[in-house]
Amino acid sequence: MKKLLVVIASAFLAGYLGISVYAWYHDTAYAEASVAQPAASPEASRVRSVLDRNACYYCHSTKTVLPGYAALPGIRQLSERDVQTGLRYFRMDAIFDALRDGTPPPEADLAKIEAVTKSGTMPPPLFRSVHWSTGLTENDRQILLDWVAKSRRQWYVTQGVAEAFANDPVQPLPDSLPVDKRKVALGMRLFHDTRLSSDNTISCASCHSLGKGGVDGRKYSLGVNGGLGGVNAPTVFNAALNHKQFWDGRAATLQDQAGGPPLNPVEMASTSWDQIVGKLKQDSAFTSDFVAVYPNGWSGKNITDAIAEFEKTLLTPSRFDAYLRGNLHALNTEEARGYALFKEKGCASCHVGKNLGGQSFEHMGRAADWFAARGTEPTEADNGRANVTKDPLDARAFKVPGLRNVELTAPYFHDGSVTGLDEAVRDMAKYQLGTTLSEADEKAIVAFLKSLTGTYTPAR
């Protein structure tokens, strides 16, 4: 028996060493080959080399071709699990494209790379035990962090931010966005016009009240004839800063988003733009004003263009913006500590940018099964991004909500299932970050989030 165990152990060790040597050879050859890959600059080439040498492409690229040993029994199951997990939580294709083309790397991707570079959690220990050539060196870390900082300054920094916060994953709001004031005036009227609904009872402002944080305070919004939507209405404030619109990202632009509710049978329930235009045309004064800006007159395209232009003005600067611009007295000690914790705990790896969110899709329940804990049957809306992409790996992924005015936008999450901000913070720590906050830390983060409550000044 003892001899058999020795034979088994020897065979296992030989197999492990064989696979490790093969992996080392393959990874080294791939990393050397990556140097010849097209890159936008010498710096981009260095970054690509670091990523390739550490085999980030194995688990985080949709274009990966795994080496032959990944098909071996046992190794195959581990590889499949790692790839599925990697693709579910972070796909690096856009990063590789940016390094090749010199285009902006996604803001949320920069934050994720920065976080794992600082924490040393990638590549994972089990992966490194087989792939001997992987593991970030100090020089690797410096190359990646320098590139992240440079990319932020080049593509995402807000003019006027204090130098101390120029490399933060979040940024202050811009003073304004470029708009056509004549279109803004028309869009504001249309945003509040109930004639966009079939029975003339509901406007955009019905679910996105500008006096209530840009929401209606309901779990699900009421549509025509009392119909209920399937998800919680996101705030319209600062929505112009989101990379896509709706929880599932089905609208690429503000204009696309504005065109959805009027024709949604559960929301405003109009049957066509012709129906809406027919009513608006009867308003001679409004029609005269509209044609002065849009010479080709009423149409769904022009109506949504005007509403989108108005929504670009819905920015809500807060004390936090003053803080990031250098007024360190704008936040009290607890709020400033909460912001530091927000970054330290990993919240800012997803809630990035000027809107503290809206830049990526993330899976609800990364660290634990949030849907099981919720205790209610899943709905079609719970499929999230997968309803748009039809990719099973996108199931239960949702656009990260912006956190500005979060104090005013309860209930929280895509399903409106959480009513308290403190509970929402606890849930995010547990189910997304895999940690439990102390009472003091939770209180400080909530205090910081309340500092994001801003002021809307109507455009003139």
UniProtKB/TrEMBL annotation:
Gene Ontology cellular-component annotations: cell envelope
Q: What's the superkingdom here? A: Bacteria
Which InterPro entries does UniProt cross-reference here? Cyt_c-like_dom (IPR009056), Cyt_c-like_dom_sf (IPR036909), Cytochrome_c_Peroxidase/MauG (IPR051395), Di-haem_cyt_c_peroxidsae (IPR004852), Haem-bd (IPR025992)
Which controlled-vocabulary keywords does the entry list? Heme, Iron, Metal-binding, Oxidoreductase
Is the keyword Lipid biosynthesis in the record?
no
Task: Tell me the compartments it is located in.
Answer: Cell envelope
* Gene Ontology MF terms in the entry: cytochrome-c peroxidase activity; electron transfer activity; heme binding; metal ion binding
* Domain Cytochrome c stretches: 182-284, 333-453
The entry's protein name is: Cytochrome B6
What is the species of this protein? Paraburkholderia dinghuensis
